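Summarise what follows for lecture notes:
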Amino acid sequence: MFFKKKEAEEPAEPKYGGLKLNYKRTFLIGFAFFGILLLWQVYDSWCPTFLTDIFANRMYGMTSAELKASDPDKILNVQWLVGIIMACDNLAALILLPIFGTISDKTKSPLGKRMPFILVGTCVSAIAFPFIPLFFHYNNIVGMIIMMAVVLLFMMMYRNPAVALMPDITPKPLRAKANGIINIMGYIGGAFATVLGIFLKLSDYINVTDRADKMWIIELPFIIASVLMVISAVVLVLTIKENKIEEEMKDEMARGEELAAIAEPVTDDGPMPRANRVMLLGILSAEFLWFMSDNAIGTYIGNYVIYYLNSVSSATMILTIIGGVASVAGFATAGMIAEKYGRKTTVCAGLGITFFALVVMIFVGPTRKVTGANGEFSFPAILFLVWILKGYGMALVHNCSFPMVVELCSSKKIGRFTGFYYASSMSAQTITPILLGYLFMQFSAWRALPIYACVLTAMSFMVFTILVKNIKASKVRNATGLEAIGDDD
């Protein structure tokens, strides 16, 4: 009589407000992002160096290796052209991403509203991709650039719907956890491409004069990437029945809307509430700046290693693997940090860690010890630490930022808001290669790369801190720790 009976106790709020993440399905959806990062990693690792070499040949009548040996500063003079080409495709994507997102929102088909775009985009990109190194090998710059444009165009058709597929069938409170799983799958795809770069060294092709029998070095990564992309798309289509899942998830999606961590409720009709609009603009503005920084590193790190550090190209791939492992750790722990401190604090922490890593990079230069048959210098080991910190920091940023954007829209506008998210990132990727290439030419210093990235990361931190509120859902806790790779029970 002096104790309450257990049956009389008030039941606790169910975890996630009664919502439950389907881990198996989320991993399968991750195959879409697997294909995206696989292609992107090969594209970003090889194409800037292809362009550097082909422009060196057109402008100075020698390969980039010969130009580096005779007049290293002239390598910097072609980087602005490299930047323009790398940016032109992104400019088209900036326009097309929101368009594909909006069209896919309104699409109805037996396969669903996203799958038709994923299938067409994957097939065309996979066919065109191996022609990029083929045209480069035969010094056909027009054919190479056309193939790059085709790949980027159809990847944009694929990318927006593929990324929108996760929030389509995942309630809002669970999207940070699901996004961690999706990104882990994506980084596995990137790791495939990186391993290829370790064994198929681009520098073994670039640094020799007789390339007739070495075409396989640059062709194999593109062929393998295309095959794996097609396999990932087939797995996705065969296992994710989009229309059926959306119908089954109606009640959970409605419950997720009630538990969303937003300033004002969202509706399908009417203007966006001012508080939500300020949040959206703040996130997208900060995202623009951190992608300016991150894409600058991604675009030019291969050339930075080959032409500034004078190291073997496989070192770039090792950096990518180390950064990828650190990113997976970041995606696995971002939810724990967000639960305790909020998504805003998590993003700010990631930007702070990244900034510190880039400051260290400023003071890293070529080593003195010369090794290797081609005269490469030994690689500065401290850059491995830089990439661990940068990979972990940016994982915290990316894991929370995309769910914050799609949190601000209804389920009928996910494709459009995904388009906003990627339009911001792609506009940054349009501007940053050209701007940084111009700075290389003006200052004739490769050290402009980490300085440029540092400044932009600091600016993104300030914008995000000022304009974005740290809203935490009170009815439901966020994902924690390694729950993102748990089971379905």
